[in-house]
Design a protein that fits this description.
Oligomer: single chain
Order of helices and strands: HHHH
Structural class: mainly alpha
Shape: flat
Bound molecules: zinc ion
Largest sheet: none
């Protein structure tokens, strides 16, 4: 049973496998992963909406930090910005069109 032809079930994301990928996601964004690992993570992102979302948030965060600070921003600041971005995202999702 070689599962080379894995089914593209994007809706099934969010499991333990996805969790592991998200964990690697940030290492990938920081270019700490080997090319092979980065490739694996990237292929997962392209088929996984939740993980793609995580990447989007992190990239926006990096861009913000880059604009605001010339140098490396403190971890505390990163966490605060990230928390805010996540909150905004959740709120925008929960808002329903009136009328
Ligand atoms: Zn995923």
């Amino acid at each position: 049973m070689s599962g080379e032809d894995a089914p593209k079930d994007t809706s099934a994301c969010g499991g333990p496998d996805c969790d592991e990928k998200v964990d690697r996601l940030f290492a990938y964004l920081d270019r700490e992963l080997a090319t092979a690992d980065a490739d694996e993570v990237r292929s997962h992102i392209e088929e996984c909406r939740p993980c793609l979302d995580e990447v989007a948030v992190d990239q926006v965060l990096k861009d913000l930090v880059k604009r605001c600070c010339q140098e490396e921003a403190p971890v505390d600041l990163k966490l605060r910005i990230r928390a805010q971005l996540t909150t905004v995202r959740v709120e925008s999702v929960r808002v329903e069109p009136a009328g």
